[in-house]
Amino acid sequence: MKIENHEIEISNRDKVFFPKESYTKGDLIDYYEQIAETMLPHLKDRPVTMLRFPNGIDDKQFYQKDAPDYFPNWIPRKKIKKQDGGSTAYVICNSKACLVYLANQACITPHIWLSKQDKPDFPDRMIFDLDPADEDFSRVKTAARNLRKLLKEELGLPVYLMTTGSRGLHLVVPLKPEKNFDEVREFAQQLAKYLEEQHPGELTTAIRKEKRGKKLFLDVARNAFGQTTVVPYGVRPKNGAPVATPLDWEELDKPDLHSQSYTIKNIFRRLGSKTDPWKDIEKNAVSIDPAIKKFKSLTD
């Protein structure tokens, strides 16, 4: 394939990656080529960890942080120091050609940092992962509304919503990159703990699964240096090839909505009738200092 003046040698287009539906590696490559324009703003300048499945979703998988030596020179890398010494050369995927190249490397899901390459220690996202204990998605919706009430109505923060393509929902607050990961995570932990206290029968922040029971896990652990999250419009390695999909908040009222509502086969019909609900997320980034003050007065 020739994309943006780069020749990409495509291999094994017919290899089946999603056996239940017989979706192939070629289907994955075509999806990422087609979604690139919508997806790239969410990938731009963020270190990428590749989740690779050389023989499809029913076979071996591995996470790859370092860009291999054989990756072509036109794929940008960013060396980031590890906290325990050494460094990792992460792929920075800012082009359609790079996205297609990664798909050809059997990267089904690109996972991204919550910070950008120029300020890796300072996140510009605060993320809450709503992880249900069972298949009852109505409980995830209720938790999302309760969390939005706290974040937006009580603390004045902008909040964006996304199906994960897996089990739950992500709520994301766009931030100005002023605080380091420890500061942002500590605030997220305080908010999660507060919500747990407000809804003790429904929510938990317990790290150990056996302590959660049937409660929904309010996970803020991704708010840490080097941690990653699925990129918006990323494909998940599950039957049906579901896609992590940004939502408008009113879509939460749809009775048939669930975390895998959108797939590589129906996402373009959706985008043909509405724009990306996250297209302005960068423009709405805020400082969290006012929210921290409001939260203090709320809990004093």
Tell me the layout of helices and strands:
Layout: E1 2-3, E2 6-7, E3 16-18, E4 23-24, H1 25-43, E5 47-52, E6 62-64, E7 77-81, E8 87-92, H2 96-104, E9 107-113, E10 125-131, H3 137-154, E11 160-163, E12 169-174, H4 181-198, E13 203-204, E14 216-219, E15 228-230, E16 245-247, H5 267-273, H6 289-299
Parallel strand pairs: 13-14
Antiparallel strand pairs: 1-2, 3-4, 5-6, 5-8, 5-9, 7-8, 9-15, 10-12, 10-14, 11-12, 11-16
Helix pairs in contact: 1-2
EC number: 6.5.1.1
GO molecular function: DNA ligase (ATP) activity
Protein name: Non-homologous end-joining DNA ligase
What is the CATH topology assignment of one domain? DNA primase, PRIM domain
Q: Ranges with pLDDT <50 over ≥5 residues?
A: none
Order of helices and strands: EEEEHEEEEHEEHEEHEEEEHH
CATH C-level class of one domain: Alpha Beta
Indicate the percent of residues in helices.
Answer: 25-40%
- Biggest beta-sheet profile: 6 strands, antiparallel
Shape estimate: globular
In total, the number of strands is 16
User: What is the CATH H-level superfamily of one domain?
Assistant: DNA primase, PRIM domain
From the coordinates shown, what is the CATH architecture of one domain? Answer: Alpha-Beta Complex
By DSSP (H or I, 4+ residues per run), the number of helices equals 6
Category from helices, strands and their pairing: alpha+beta
Approximately what portion of the residues adopt beta-strand conformation?
A: 15-25%
| Rg on CA atoms, Å | 19 Å
Average pLDDT score:
96
Task: Give the CA-CA distance, first to last residue.
Answer: 60 Å
Quaternary organisation: single chain
GO molecular function, one term: DNA ligase (ATP) activity
Keywords: Ligase
EC number: 6.5.1.1
Protein name: Non-homologous end-joining DNA ligase
